[in-house]
Amino acid sequence: MKITKRIIDTIFITLELIGSSLFVFYTTINNTFCAMQCLFFIICLSLPLLIQIIFKINITFLMYFVYDIFLIMHFFLGEILSFYVKFKYFDVILHFFSACFICFFGYSIIHYYLLNAHMKIQKTFSFLFGLVSEYIWEIIEYTIDDIFKTNMQRYLFLVGHNALFDTIKDMIVAILGCILFLILIKNNYLKKIHIKKSFD
User: Fold this and answer.
1) What's the confidence (pLDDT) of residue 157?
2) Do the Cβ atoms of 59 and 51 come closer than 8 Å?
3) pLDDT at position 196, please?
4) What is the DSSP letter of 1?
5) Which pTM was predicted?
6) What is the pLDDT of residues 114-124, one digit of tens each?
7) CA-to-CA distance for 199 and 176, rounded, in angstroms?
8) How many angstroms separate the CA atoms of 99 and 129, rounded?
9) Residue 184, pLDDT score
10) Torsion sign, CA atoms 79, 152, 16, 200
11) Are the beta carbons of 97 and 69 closer than 8 angstroms?
């Protein structure tokens, strides 16, 4: 347990240093877009720690690891290195698996607090938790684009119906990712991967 915590702390500190260094670098060269992506990366990296403190739970190493991978893929590969533009289905793949992961995170929370709740209730909560989180992310993307004049929703490349389709496509893909989660839970593929007991 202590070794796992050390690994998690080491990964967290390393990524924070990388994100902070890149933030300073892009700020120095007046690249506002990349600097903001690094700042958002640093903030998102701290969310699991805040969740642990607020909900008094201990997130597993696997969930930490997967979450960090998603952050790296989105902010560094997707936004800074423009994988969203260079690779047509990069955005679709990321939304699909992130929705599945968020659903599982929601399931882990309700399973931890309401272990005896009916399985249908746990699955419904998890499904809705995944959808709400994904849809809130779309609002965040729109807000960031509106305030900082970025292009997270690709509106600068798309016109009319196609611009609307980019957001709707993300929502549809999120639903499919949530459905994948329900299939995995039904077949007990994720049975052994739960949030661990709380800590003080």
Assistant:
1) 73
2) yes
3) 53
4) -
5) 0.80
6) 777 788 888 89
7) 34
8) 9
9) 84
10) negative
11) no
Residue type, 134: E
Instruction: Give the model's pLDDT for residue 13.
Output: 92
* Rounded-to-integer distance, Cα 78 and Cα 42, Å: 16
Q: pLDDT higher for 194 or 130?
A: 130
Tokens of 103: 């659903």
3-state helix, strand, coil in the chain (%, to 5): 75, 0, 20
Q: How many other CB atoms sit within 10 Å of the CB of residue 103?
A: 30
What is the separation of C-alpha 8 from the centre of its chain, rounded to a whole number of angstroms?
A: 17
Using CA atoms, how far apart are residues 190 and 60, in angstroms rounded to an integer? 13
User: What is the rounded distance in angstroms from the CA atom of residue 138 to the CA atom of residue 170?
Assistant: 8
Cβ atoms < 10 Å from Cβ of 138: 18
Tell me the percentage of the chain whose pLDDT exceeds 70: 92
The reported pLDDT for the residue numbered 23 is 96
